[in-house]
Design brief:
Elements lengths: L1 H38 L3 H14 L4 H13 L3 H14 L4 H13 L3 H12 L7 H19 L2 H14 L4 H13 L3 H14 L6 H11 L3 H14 L4 H16 L8 H21 L5 H4 L4 H9 L5 H18 L8 H10 L4
Amino acid sequence: MGIVLVALWIGAALLSRASHDQRVRRGQRAAAQAADALRAGRPAEAVRALRDAVAFEPDRAAYRLALAKALVASGQPAEAEPYVHEALRQQPVDGEANLVLARILRQAGSVEDAERAYYRAVYGRWDRDALSQRMAARLELVSLYRDAGQRHRLRAALLELSAAFPGDRTLQLQAGRELLAEGFADDAARQLRAVVERFAEPGEALGLLARAEFASGNYIEAYAAAGRAVRQDPRDTSSARLRSLAARVLTLDPDQPRLSTRERTRRAAVLLTEARERLRACPAGPPSTASSSPVPLVTAWLDDRSRDADVGRALLAAAATALAQRCPKVAEDDALGLVLRGLAEGRG
């Protein structure tokens, strides 16, 4: 009897093992079919195959996570979320699971929750290609902030991206380009200077640097960077135009170093004449400011043949400030307007 019982136990164990092995193989086949379907752009087919894989091996976190990814790809993020949470309960620091969760939360419009999940993905554990996966997570985080219109968080994410991958020229250029586009010209200029210094072939960094320096009011640096960009690529017409515009600004700026008093006075006269005409053309300000208009004093100074340089410079600051208040818009290629705006902002 004992021998029979042992034989039955061994047989049951062998059957159980065979059944388990069969389920594993069927699960593997289903997962492989799902991977093929996803590569072919058929997420619905992948979902069906992965449901089978999960049924064959319900405790295998990798299948649940793959099913969640397929559900997201097929436009079913709400159904995918429980599978991701189950995977995260088993492996809370799994980078891929957190990245999938971030995508689900983003689709649901939960920006702050998605942000936290993206950061967990960035600093989580990845089984393979950790560096490239963390890069992808950071890029999606940048995209999240951009789409949400969160400029200052976008700035921080771009600076973090740049610091995390200093040897990747493409990412460095992207960070500089986006910082510039979002109006963080000083940050963009610092970023792009580093690219120019670090890489023997800086690509479009010189042209972008010229634009960033120009937007920051650093016209000498903009002129130099644009000149280097043109020498690098004579077909770079954008940098050539920017160099010409920077040169024009520099020939008008009365606060450039090493100018004679006569030249400063001449430039002040040119700018005051232009400022007076623009103030006259601008819409009138509130009645309370009419009596404080600098136009009469500007006209008196321009009509005075002696033209005191210090008085002219003070009038120029007042006229530029009044113009910035009444007519703040300045065209990108308006050299006179750019100089007057810089004087109003205290740059010169």
